[in-house]
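ok, trying the design again with the full structure, not the truncated one.
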């Protein structure tokens, strides 16, 4: 099974009722869990990438189809895709309202990009039906790589978040690898997208 991030709080394991997966606080995850994984990566000198994913237009889905029948089903679909396609050693976690976090061990940014494209493709093929109406869902993703995109948890999360923001600002339904130069960030990601589409 995929390693799913979790939080023990006051002796109680808290589960996400929407996706069926355990949940955690952002503070706990950054301060303790991810910091621990960075220490391992530094010691082993192995690559590590993180992917922040955002379910596109969740508010519009909720408004049109309802929170439970529309929004929750869309979140479950994304959670299922991630847990199905991720490896046993990866960490998958619900990180916010419509955000998910995936830690990819021993994975370069380019390989993380390719895997995120696979998640995006499979998610786009899912059709959700609500009261006779059908809709499809898409995701946006930002990728940061240790140690090129930062040495601390704060730097890496911040840069993955900037890449995710860039993906959302430029049309959504895309994957972006962080670069300090936004133009280079877009060009590099488009080139990789074309390369993997051609394979």
């Amino acid at each position: 099974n995929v390693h799913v991030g979790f939080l023990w709080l006051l002796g109680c394991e808290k589960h996400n009722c929407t996706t069926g997966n355990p949940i955690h606080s952002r503070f706990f995850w950054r301060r303790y869990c991810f910091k621990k994984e960075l220490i391992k990566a530094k010691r082993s000198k192995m690559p590590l990438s993180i992917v922040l994913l955002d379910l596109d237009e969740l508010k519009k889905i909720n408004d049109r189809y309802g929170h439970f029948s529309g929004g929750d089903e869309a979140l479950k679909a994304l959670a299922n895709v991630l847990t199905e396609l991720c490896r046993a050693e990866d960490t998958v976690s619900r990180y916010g309202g419509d955000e998910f976090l995936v830690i990819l061990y021993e994975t370069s940014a380019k390989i993380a990009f390719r895997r995120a494209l696979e998640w995006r493709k499979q998610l786009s093929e899912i059709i959700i039906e609500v009261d006779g109406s059908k809709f499809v869902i898409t995701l946006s993703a930002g990728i940061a790589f240790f140690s090129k995109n930062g040495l601390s948890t704060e730097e890496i999360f911040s840069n993955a978040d900037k890449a995710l923001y860039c993906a959302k600002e430029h049309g959504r339904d895309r994957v972006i690898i962080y670069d300090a130069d936004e133009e280079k960030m877009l060009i590099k990601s488009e080139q990789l997208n074309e390369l993997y589409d051609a394979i």
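Keeping the full-length input from now on. Confidence is low (pLDDT under 50) at residues 1-17, 21-25.
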